[in-house]
## 1
Amino acid sequence: MTTASLPKTALGHIRVLDLTRVLAGPWCAQNLADLGAEIIKVERPGCGDDTRSWGPPYLRDGEGNNTTEAAYYLAANRGKQAITVDIATPEGQAIIRELAAISDVVLENYKVGQLKKYGLDYDSLKLIKPDLVYCSITGFGQDGPYANRAGYDFIVQGMGGFMSLTGERDDLPGGGPQKAGVAITDLMTGMYSTIAVMAALTHRDRTGEGQYIDMALLDVQVAMLANMNMNYLTTGNAPKRWGNAHANIVPYQTFATSDGHIIVAAGNDGQYKKFVHIGGQPELAEDPRFSTNPARVQHRDTLVPMLADMVKRKTKGEWITLLEEAGVPCGPINQLNEVFDDPQVKARAMQIDLPHPTAGTVKLVASPMKLSATPVNYAGAPPLLGQHTESVLQRLLNYDVNQLQLLKEKKVI
């Protein structure tokens, strides 16, 4: 393929063999697909990616009937070609090796050592594709005492410290550790894996050398705690949970209004003064217990209930309008229907509609990556199980009709 004929996408010259399932690996592959890479998603015949059945809810067709595609699966698999191959069979292993030989990247999230018995590990595949970039995603990495454990996002959120920082204060009602509302460790592992793959491809393009990437959910969870890690490492004191409040700033938290919730982030005394004046309680700015941030932090248990009563007297919309006009940092806590109806979200085109073979169209969330020269490319909706098996094997490996029929009869594909 000449440079002039390359599609105008960042990764239009890259082919990825995706042996991953559930979320971390598919999220990485979907990022690469959005950037133009050709993704060949390999699934087990008959059942496929576990998330296909993680419903309800399921995608509905034009008549309101459920399809076979769970919403969970749809979240992480757009832009891919789906093939079914039984890698436990010699014929299936041969297909994967043939595809790896003409691919730039292999992604996999099998248990440590599981693919080696099939001859599909990095050491085996690099013999037939020396410049291959091979990314393994596991719960705990390829070495260490936990390497053979299965990795689950929820468990890793706890093990990696995230839940020690998330949740209401222990001394308040509802206090205790809390996981995130989405599988944040899986998602961040997918993002870090995307970056690692692109770095390895850049290295390959400069040197001709492929490499192995060892990604672990626990590593990612530890790394992503950012300033909280440093709060501990610089003091030796483990940070504690503050719920929706801030350890060092008051008020910097959520409040219930008369019809919903808002966030108020008064970062200085002037913003606090404006906040309580808008709320009709200017005396709270003059009270020496509350006039400065250090004093407010010291007396938060007295002040916050008073502020909570004040905020309840107006609606969410009223507070947002008044606080924004006064320059007090604030924001709503939106339900998802409000998110997708938000004018900024609409202006940024964060919902897309793609053609779907059984539902007609499917609503999906757009990629947040906005590139001027190589824009995101939506190659297609999340594919049906095995939707592209025959076309991929015919186009890329030159399998004929008789070969395909024989593989079907043996239940290899």
## 2
Amino acid sequence: MPIEDYSGGVSSETDVIVVTTNDVPGYQVQEVIGEIFGLTVRSRHMGSQIGAGLKSMVGGELRGLTKTLVATRNQAMERLIEAARARGANAVLMMRFDVTDAAQVGTEVCAYGTAAVVAKTAP
């Protein structure tokens, strides 16, 4: 399977910088806008649940669930970036994920961070 199926992150084509750090090397924070988040809730597919239950008896990676979680995190990040743009930010600092069960019928994934305006520093 291609690595794209099992990894995520921000596209290199986006105009919003997303980092898990307090600052961005080579940039200066000009304005802190505030907390933002992107949220999605995915229901569990009955077929994948049955397959996961069977796989858990013999061990190994649950590839279907892994791919679903990657897609869900990527969707939450896309919504986070949309929220940053809507508030006038060009960066998200201290980005994190929070994942929880949603009433035992799905998984809630929240990408959150601090929206900010950053500018390149002079060399």
## 3
Amino acid sequence: MSDTQKSDLALLLLRVSLGVMALAHGFLLKVLTFTPAGTAQFFESVGYPAFVAYLVILGETLGGLALIAGVFTRLTAVLLLPILIGATLMHVGNGWMFSKPNGGWEFPAFWTVALVVQALLGPGAYSIGRLLPTSLPSFVRA
């Protein structure tokens, strides 16, 4: 296996992992477990307007799907950054370790860095975006 193939495989693993995590947090956790109304209530309890919860749910769910597919990869990674920076800031008072009560900030901080890496590197060769016509804008394919 060549270095290029290894890099493309690494990008696939990074992109799909980030996508699955975003989808799990947006849909499985916030929609199916806590419900959108419950998520909105939590957001209000920590000082955010309720509508922000719905934007986060939408962003994580659609962003997860886009990352898994490898379309809008760079744009999606950048658009997910405010959500993860917000999550990091929400957990910073709980300490470093995510095993602390209410979770620490290590996991969302790492997730933030991984999204920056994904945005810098793009989707890799194994993405649906690479199969789209070259006449489409590059931010769609990358």
## 4
Amino acid sequence: MSASTPRGALDGIKVLDLSRVLAGPWCTQMLADLGADVVKVERPQAGDDTRHWGPPFLKDDAGRDTREASYFTACNRNKRSITVDMAHPEGQALLRRMAAEADVVVENFKVGGLAQYGLDYASLKALNPRLVYCSITGFGQDGPYAERAGYDLMVQAMCGLMSITGHADGQPGGGPLKVGVAVVDVFTGLYASNAILAALNARDNARNGTGEGQHIDMALLDVGMAVLANQAAGYLATGQAPGRAGNIHPSLAPYQDFRSRDGNVLLAIGNDGQFARFCQACGHPEWAQDARFATNTARVQHRAALLALMEPVLQTRSTAEWIALLEDKAVPCGPINTIAQAFDDPQVRARGIRRELPRDAGDGIAHVATVANPMRLSGTPVSYHRAPPALGQHTDEVLRELGLDASAIAALKAGGAI
């Protein structure tokens, strides 16, 4: 980090990242963006699995595909990469030495998988009682499924998310669908980073802090259930499991996509005032006075009748014309963009969502494009000081900080520990 880089909120926090794929790396990228020094430990020669999950691949300076998948870059910004063989006794010793100086360890191995290497919570706590140790698994540290491997797609199915995603049975394209992003992994990373911050505060709080860290048990299935949000609340209140309804909202109307004259347009009307203003703007103020549509509850109950009236009207204007008509009337309305269109949106561009980070790993990749962290802190802003690293790019640097000289590092390389 350069001298001109603002100090982050987590400046001084050291994180040893033993995780791979998405949930764990998403968590540690959040911490790195906030200023923590995150050292990502990868397997020699192979690295994180997602380095190979392509296409698509990063391109070199000449525009040719490299052997590094773009997937990896989604969740490994601002980290330093080292390669260590944790199955090697000297590799294990290195990692224990690093953990003794760390504030946080994040891992996503199977339950009990790190005990054989002396890298489990009990072993590392004995070396460093202040350590906050976060384990991320599919199903948690206990329960009948604890030993199972867990993946986002599996958990989206098991937690019920796929049962409420997609068109209803009997409709064209009906059937359960996964979300287009591994949202359970992403949410697990977010919950994990929140839990880590809470544990650090509990450790360091001057009034009631213990001075000790703790073990955090994060499970994809737990998170999948938690983010069902209003759908889970509805089931708990009624005992009736909700089903799939496409883009219709079960508790709001009209709150969905419609055919416009040239494509699709989305209306997200969340209260009666917005509905009345929409009706006035589209030339049908009488709809808002109709007892079937005057309140949101009534509109939900008479959704079919309301849509029968609205659908022909929505097709009389283009998407852009609807947006222009409703924009100054505080009626939420917008396009259904492709990802390319979203990145080209004037608001997205104004907010600087695309970030180009220089990479000096000597691998022919000069810059890596990433998506900005959405947290905007006025005093300790997120920084973008490192591109997602090349495999093992910082091994020598980190080991020198541990106190190893060139001959000791060379010996570790020769012995296969790094």
